[in-house]
Every structure is written in structure tokens, then in C-alpha cells.
Design a protein that fits this description.
Distance between the termini: 40 Å
CATH architecture of the largest domain: Roll
Number of strands: 15
Order of helices and strands: HHEEEEHEEEHEEHEEEHEEHEH
Number of helices: 8
CATH class of the largest domain: Alpha Beta
Structural class: alpha+beta
CATH topology of the largest domain: Outer membrane lipoprotein wza fold like
Radius of gyration: 25 Å
Number of domains: 3
Shape: elongated
Strand content: 25-35%
Length: about 325
């Protein structure tokens, strides 16, 4: 009997790793030809070099030095870092032309490892991977073995670049099949695929544990003041009159202002926290929650990355 249910647009993310990579490469074109056309060479990359028609000139695994240069035959210390492979080939041919008539250089990558990205969380293999081609978000998930559990919280998953959250909607990419969210990665990017299993909240900012704050277990009656106390209490620089709670999706979060000064003065009741809530304590008075959102999310992302790297395996958020 034929099923009436159409397959999920990105169901291949749960397929075996080998199949995932083949499908991903076929769809998104992350292949060697693309890599050679767009990849920017860096220190640590290595290439095989040979003059056309002269197999005896072949040199295997010629590495780009810390100074960004390579040497081949009479072409000594030619800087290639920052160039594409085609541009580097031309520069080396120009350098060889001093001693070789109309040189034609064959230059093939052996190991492209100077640029990397890291993926952590609910995927098959956490770790750092070489950015050796035009790798997209879906490619990165595929290369890491795909999503390994149904209990994934895409609303709190993120892509971090330079310590800041990149405006990508993971839920829309996966659940909605919106490939406009499937952006290309850059050197140093961090991807975090979160879990819905963790019963925790987070406190950052001017607290006793320092700016990095901490993960606070979420009991049945965990409150804002209780969570701050569990994070070491207010620091001396804390502004105690008001804190911010960031709740729900990182893409479109709910911002809740809590007048902690009134709670401490017994003028109002403490506020119960929910799983995944981010509490941020600032050092200065603030009026608009949106003014504090960026710094709160940055603290959360930095702590999540550090925690994931320390654990070295999937961690639940």
C-alpha cells in the first residue's frame, strides 16, 4: 500500500554518513573542481607540483610554510597564501619562467587543512573539520554523520562566527526545507546542534562565577533569584534592579524584563524559570531589552562552544 506521506525535504540528514555525503555533494556541488576554483590557500596546505611533460620534476606534498610561501625547483619562497589555486599556479609559473621556457605547472591539492570549522551537539561525530570546499550547513551536518536523535532543538541551535550568532534559522532550514538558510561556512565557524533533553537554565554577566556565568540545573521551583544565587550571586559590579530573561528560539526570542530590585525588596513575587532560559545580569542600568539581547546571546554562544569543546561529545542544551 502506497503511503500518503511525502518524505521530509531534508530527510537525508538522518541517512548513513556515506550516503549523506554523496547526496550532499550531488545537490550542492561541493566538489574538488569547486574547491580549486574558490579555495583560498593558507599555511599548512600542501600540493603536488609537476611541470607538464616532465614527470621527473614531480614533487609530492609541497607544503605552504608559516610565511605563506612555497618553493619548487628554481622558484624559491614564492608567496601563495591568500590566493586561489589557479592564482598560485600562475604566480609559480611566472617565477619559473626565469629559468624554464613557457612553463606549464600541474598543481593539485594533497591536503587542504588551513581552514576549519567545528560542529558540536546532536550529530554523529563532534569535532573540527577541514573547510576544503564550499561547505554549507547541510554539508557540515552530513559530514559529521547527520542528526543522531529526534530530540533536537533547532530553535536553540546556532551558527557562530567571530563570537556572534549568524542570522540563520535552523528550524526553518530543517523542518521547513528552506534552502535559503543553507549558507556557506567560513573559516573558524562553529555550529551547535542543541538537544531538548537538558533541564537547565543559564546565568551570565555580573555574577559571582564571572562573565561566563554557568549552567544551572532546573529544579521544579527554580526562580530568577535562586538561579543568580546558584551562579555565585551578584558580583560587586552588578546592577541589581533589573535582569533580562531570553526565552525560546534564539532566532525570535521572547524578552522578559524582571525587576529583581522589587523582588529583593519583597514588593513582588520571584519569577519561575523555564528550561533553556538565559538570565543576564548587567553592570549598568538599561531601559530596552533589545539593547541587552546581543550581549546576552553572545555570552550564551561563547559558553555553549566552550562547554561543548571541553566535553568533546554531544551536550544537551
Amino acid at each position: 500500500m502506497r503511503s500518503n506521506h511525502s518524505p521530509h525535504p531534508l530527510s537525508f540528514l538522518r541517512a548513513p554518513a556515506a550516503a549523506i555525503i554523496l547526496i550532499s555533494l550531488a545537490i550542492f556541488g561541493a566538489n574538488d573542481a569547486t574547491a580549486q576554483g574558490t579555495y583560498v590557500i593558507g599555511s599548512g596546505d600542501s600540493f603536488s607540483l609537476q611541470l607538464h611533460g616532465l614527470p621527473e620534476s614531480r614533487q609530492e606534498a609541497v607544503s605552504v610554510g608559516a610565511d605563506g610561501a612555497v618553493s619548487f625547483l628554481e622558484a624559491r619562497r614564492v608567496r601563495v597564501a591568500g590566493l586561489t589555486i589557479a592564482q598560485a599556479r600562475k604566480r609559480l609559473e611566472d617565477a619559473l619562467a626565469v629559468s624554464v621556457r613557457s612553463p606549464r605547472l600541474i598543481m593539485n591539492p594533497v591536503a587542504l587543512g588551513s581552514k576549519k570549522y567545528t560542529i558540536l551537539g546532536m550529530v554523529g561525530g563532534n569535532g573540527t573539520f577541514p573547510l576544503d570546499s564550499e561547505v554549507t550547513l547541510i554539508d557540515a551536518i552530513a559530514r559529521s554523520g547527520g542528526i543522531q536523535d529526534a530530540a533536537v532543538d533547532f530553535e536553540r541551535s546556532f551558527l557562530s562566527r567571530g563570537g556572534k550568532k549568524v542570522p540563520v534559522d535552523m528550524k526553518q532550514l530543517y523542518a521547513g526545507g528552506d534552502l535559503s538558510q543553507n549558507i556557506r561556512l567560513r573559516d573558524g565557524d562553529y555550529i551547535y546542534i542543541a538537544s531538548v533533553i537538558g533541564k537547565e537554565c543559564y546565568v551570565f554577566g555580573a555574577v559571582g562565577r564571572g562573565e561566563s556565568g554557568g549552567v544551572i540545573p532546573l529544579g521544579q521551583q527554580q526562580t530568577v533569584i535562586g538561579a543568580i544565587a546558584a551562579a555565585g550571586g551578584y558580583s560587586r559590579s552588578a546592577w541589581k534592579n533589573k535582569v533580562l530573561i531570553v526565552r525560546g528560539s534564539l532566532t525570535k526570542p521572547e524578552l522578559i524584563e524582571v525587576k529583581t530590585g522589587d523582588i529583593i525588596a519583597a514588593k513582588t513575587n520571584d519569577v519561575l524559570l523555564q528550561a533553556g532560559d538565559i538570565v543576564y545580569v548587567h553592570t549598568k542600568p538599561w531601559a530596552l531589552a533589545t539593547d541587552l539581547l546581543d550581549v546576552a546571546l553572545r555570552a550564551f554562544i561563547t559558553a555553549s562552544i566552550s562547554r561543548g569543546l571541553d566535553v568533546g561529545t554531544s551536550v544537551g542544551l
